[in-house]
Automatic annotation (TrEMBL), chain A:
A Pfam family matched in the record: Transketolase_C
PANTHER family per UniProt: 2-OXOISOVALERATE DEHYDROGENASE SUBUNIT BETA, MITOCHONDRIAL (PTHR42980:SF1), 2-OXOISOVALERATE DEHYDROGENASE SUBUNIT BETA-RELATED (PTHR42980)
EC number: 1.2.4.4
Coiled coil regions, renumbered to chain: none
Top-level division of the source organism's lineage: Bacteria
Keyword Transcription found: no
SUPFAM superfamilies registered for this protein in UniProt: Thiamin diphosphate-binding fold (THDP-binding), TK C-terminal domain-like
Cofactors required: thiamine diphosphate
GO molecular function, one term: branched-chain 2-oxo acid dehydrogenase activity
Protein name in UniProt: 3-methyl-2-oxobutanoate dehydrogenase (2-methylpropanoyl-transferring)
Keyword list, A-Z: Oxidoreductase
UniProtKB/TrEMBL annotation, chain B:
GO molecular-function term, one example from the UniProt record: oxidoreductase activity, acting on the aldehyde or oxo group of donors, disulfide as acceptor
SUPFAM superfamilies xref list: Thiamin diphosphate-binding fold (THDP-binding) (SSF52518)
UniProt source species: Streptomyces griseoviridis
Protein name: Pyruvate dehydrogenase (Acetyl-transferring) E1 component subunit alpha
Cited Pfam families: E1_dh
PANTHER family: 2-OXOISOVALERATE DEHYDROGENASE SUBUNIT ALPHA, MITOCHONDRIAL
Cofactor names: thiamine diphosphate
Family annotation (InterPro entries): Alpha-ketoacid_DH_E1_comp (IPR050771), DH_E1 (IPR001017), PdhA/BkdA (IPR017596), THDP-binding (IPR029061)
Length: 334, 378
């Protein structure tokens, strides 16, 4: 038996590996987008794919997001599995009509005769010092669209597992890649990647008894840091990583909240009309009698994404999370 | 010194990337639309094809009339008639091989029917029974697209995929004059030309985007001219001349099949009916304009040619009409039956596997239906 050294790998490398393995095992998998070929993507996530699989399998397209996704629809109609890169969150908006009117609905429109196995990769979120239009958190738009699966990895292993599962899915999946975690490293054995799980399973990243932090994607490391810091306050926080926003894992989330009796939802995206409102409502509907306090939200402000020199004030940080945890002592306030 | 002057100074001869890549002249459409009927060219047209086109036009006209009548009876939610445009619809269906694909817009039900689709299945969307009543793969007809021009990039992607797989397949995509203003029209044509995809785009220019006339839609000399900027040929054809449309599309399909890349065809035609039954066309166009187009009706043009050359007599005309009448009677009878709908289907085709959330909602609806049935039986 050979043992492969477990080496540090970045999330970007795991995503690349996921596409490479998918392309190697299934000749119908095609990658397309602006700059994905020769350059390997502006984040280098498609690095080497064009060289290994040829330009027909990893294609530099004209700069046109609706055209990229629209062409992917036709390719999927003919039996291919396109993996589309949208380069940046706010650049995906021109493709929104294709996504909402066709990608999400084709299975439904055709009564199941024509499912579209399309993966849409969207580097998203802030914290990288990008200028405007480069840091949006657009997950609420995708979540509000029936017919789409929406997933977002927060770890290197999940980046591989979720992208493999997305490409293997017979339904369209929007993979929101937290771009500020692209270079985060973990020990990872690419020869034995985590088993490809079905989409829609949340996971408890840190067990705790005092309260649950419900989070995903770029906010997971922040929540884990907050949980460590909370120990000094005598709080033992559980951290749940959703991984999948659609379908939503009520079971894991509610089991945790029933154990702890308190919950805070944490995400970068704005709070008004944001994912946290939906999550708080679901938790309240299902766990009301277990709750010791209202479900709180720690979200980005309800403002257009701020300029990079101010973004640290917008992004939910450890202090803001700890403040919310403090407010969970509802009885004391009552 | 301006930037342009600087650039000129440093680059006396432009690098290759700045040179025009294609000679635009062969791509330009002719000044006049291609016509066959009423010209000498009609003598060399295939009589069998002309008679086939005639029969399909008569059927198509009857189909449009029957569907419009079904709307008035409340059997269809809406019907965007292609009366006056039947030559484009029929020719689009007939130039394709069985393995080719048709990408229709919401007004192109007739093209789908002429391609062989069951008329009732083709009307499913407009009846409100379901969104698409047929399996697109079975007939190689994409779902009728209601958002404008969004089906065009699909046609490009499908044709591209077919070529990657080594299949000899052409995609023909239909769009209206209003659709040429959409961003997806531009992106589709650009992708098609860059990829040299085997696609043909047919613009049915019927003069109006609902109420907005072409002059307020574009400042281009013709819609066919738009092709040149993408590096593909633009062709102009009389959209009421079924033989001419068939010829131009046949050439374009052959060119695509042989690896020559995409073509943009503009067919100049006219929508004799209103946009849909919900529209009042008298608000935006004069009766004499409609009358002038009635005199240039696609059926009249072909009938005159065929009878003038002794290829069709009264009996032939009657036979075509009787065939169309039978189709209409069958359509009427079948459309007057209420479709059997299962409300549980609402959840069946959203995802391959319903999400836990949809399973809950499915259970809720099932309980509501059971309660309804119980109420009925009381």
């Amino acid at each position: 038996m050979t043992t492969v050294a477990v080496k540090p790998a970045t999330m970007a490398q795991a995503l690349t590996r996921a596409m490479r393995d998918a392309m190697a095992s299934d000749p119908t998998v095609h990658v397309l987008g602006e700059d994905v070929g020769t350059l390997g993507g502006v984040f280098r996530v498609t690095d080497g794919l064009a060289k290994e699989f040829g330009e027909d399998r990893c294609t530099d397209t004209p700069l046109a997001e609706a055209g990229i996704l629209g062409a992917a629809v036709g390719m999927a109609m003919y039996g291919l599995r396109p993996v589309v890169e949208m380069q940046f969150d706010a650049f995906a908006y021109p493709a929104f009509e294709q996504l909402v009117s066709h990608v999400a609905k084709m299975r439904n429109r055709t009564r199941g005769a024509m499912p579209l196995p399309i993966t849409v990769r969207v580097p998203y979120g802030g914290g990288i010092g990008g200028v405007e239009h480069h840091s949006d958190s657009s997950e609420a738009y995708y979540m509000a669209t029936p017919g789409l699966h929406v997933v977002t990895p927060a770890t290197v292993a999940d980046a591989y597992g979720l992208l493999r599962a997305a490409i293997a899915s017979d339904d369209p999946v929007v993979v929101l890649e937290p771009k500020r975690l692209y270079w985060s490293k973990e020990s990872w054995n690419p020869e034995e990647p985590a088993p490809v799980e079905p989409l829609g399973r949340a996971v408890v990243r840190r067990p705790g008894r005092s309260a649950t932090l419900i989070t995903y994607g770029p906010s997971l490391p922040v929540c884990l840091e907050a949980a460590e810091a909370a120990r000094a306050e005598g709080w033992d926080l559980e951290v749940v990583d959703l991984r999948s926003l659609t379908p939503f894992d009520d079971e894991t989330v509610c089991a945790s909240v029933r154990r702890t009796g308190r919950a805070v939802v944490v995400h970068e995206s704005g709070g008004f009309g944001g994912p946290g409102g939906e999550i708080a409502a679901r938790v309240t509907e299902r766990c009301f009698h277990h709750l010791e306090a209202p479900v709180l939200r720690v979200a980005g402000f309800d403002i257009p994404y701020p300029p990079p020199m101010l973004e640290r004030h917008h992004l939910p940080g450890v202090d803001r999370i700890l403040d919310a945890v403090g407010r969970l002592q509802w009885e004391a306030e009552g | 010194m301006t930037v342009l002057e600087q650039r000129g100074a440093y680059h006396p001869s432009p690098p290759p990337a700045w040179q025009p890549r294609t000679d635009p002249a062969p791509l330009l459409p002719d000044a006049e639309p291609h016509r066959v009927l009423g010209t000498d060219a009609a003598e060399s047209a295939d009589p069998a094809l002309m008679r086939r086109l005639y029969a399909e036009l008569v059927r198509g006209r009857r189909y449009n009339a029957q569907a419009t009548a079904l709307t008035k009876q409340g059997r269809l939610a809406v019907y965007p008639s292609s009366t006056g445009q039947e030559a484009c619809e029929v020719a689009a269906a007939l130039v394709l091989q069985e393995r080719d694909w048709l990408f229709p817009s919401y007004r192109d039900t007739l093209a789908a029917v002429a391609r062989g689709l069951d008329p009732v299945q083709a009307l499913t969307l407009l009846r409100g029974d379901w969104h698409t009543g047929y399996d697109p793969r079975e007939h190689r007809v994409a779902p009728l697209s209601t958002p404008l021009a969004t089906q065009l990039p699909h046609a490009v992607g499908l044709a591209h995929a077919a070529r990657l797989k080594g299949d000899d397949v052409v995609a023909l995509a239909l769009v209206g004059d209003g659709g040429t203003s959409e961003g997806d029209f531009h992106e589709a044509l650009n992708f098609a030309a860059v990829w040299q995809a085997p696609v043909v785009f047919l613009v049915q220019n019927n003069g109006f985007a609902i109420s907005v006339p072409l002059a307020k839609q574009t400042a281009a000399p013709s819609l066919a001219h738009k092709a040149v900027g993408y590096g593909m040929p633009g062709r102009l054809v009389d959209g009421n001349d079924a033989v001419a449309v068939h010829q131009v599309l046949t050439d374009a399909v052959r060119r695509a099949r042989e690896g020559g890349g995409p073509t943009l065809v503009e067919a100049i035609t006219y929508r004799l009916d209103a946009h849909t039954n919900a529209d009042d066309a008298t608000r935006y166009r004069a009766a004499d304009e409609v009358d002038a187009w009635r005199a240039h009706d696609p059926i009249t043009l072909l009938e005159r040619e065929l009878t003038g050359r002794g290829l069709l007599d009264e009996a032939g005309i009657e036979a075509a009409r009787a065939d169309a009448e039978a189709m209409a009677a069958d359509l009427r009878a079948r459309m007057n039956q209420d479709p059997a709908l299962d409300p549980m289907d609402l959840f069946t085709h959203v995802y391959a596997e319903p999400t836990p959330q949809l399973r809950e909602q499915r259970d809720q609806l099932r309980a509501e239906l059971a309660a309804e049935r119980e109420g009925d039986s009381r």
